[in-house]
Amino acid sequence: MAEPRPCALVPVYDHPATIGAVCAELSALGLPVVLVDDGSHAECAAELDRLAAHGHHLLRLDCNRGKGAAVRVGLAEAQRLGYTHALQVDADGQHASEDLPGFLAELDGTPEALVVGYPRYDASVPRSRLYGRYATHVWVWINTLSGEIRDSMCGVRLYPVESLNRLLARHSCGDRMTFDTEILVRWHWAGGTLRNLPVRVHYPRDGVSHFALWRDNRQISAMHARLFCGMLRRLPRLLARRWRRAPVEARP
Known about the structure:
Layout: E1 6-12, H1 19-28, E2 33-38, H2 42-53, E3 57-61, H3 67-80, E4 85-88, H4 101-109, E5 114-121, H5 127-144, E6 157-160, H6 161-170, H7 179-189, E7 194-201, H8 213-233, H9 235-245
Parallel strand pairs: 1-2, 1-4, 2-3, 5-7
Antiparallel strand pairs: 4-6, 5-6
Helix pairs in contact: 3-6, 5-7, 5-8
């Protein structure tokens, strides 16, 4: 693998109050920032124009297509610009910037790995969000026959750009909220190296969520059903991999 050249990748949809601080925190880590405007309204679009005028790289989608679509576009642009890795961070400022250097440190030992954040919540987390994630966790563990993916919904992750783009050329992984989970399951199926790192998460009282309850839950349910069928087709290979990785003393 080439000498690591990371950037930050931030998909943005209507977070005008937080995106400036997020960019400042990423710049303080020495990361160039690739912003993908996912069809934001005027106030946020103006803030993104201001950030672009200060040197951040801005892509603009003509309408709101969803987080998955924005990340795919951003990963393709990151590769075009010559970056080897993209640290994806959400635009809402929920994640502790002090925890991000740990993701970049993984480049020294395992640059081929996809490094995934798992949340360490404080008392601000809504109980519905906290407990609602476990349905997806269980399905991910079933569909991978593994507990290797600790959390598939956290918005902080370090992507090896070229490998991810090759995978996305075969599987788009959805345009909206399904993307974060499906890309990790398919990465696991493909035998990719994966690391999990903790990241502290705070939910501000006036935070903005773009989760559409009925639409996104319907798409997430369909994704889990589709991945379950994919797991069944891959079952012999996944079981063989699980057997190879099991300690000798744990085998029957």
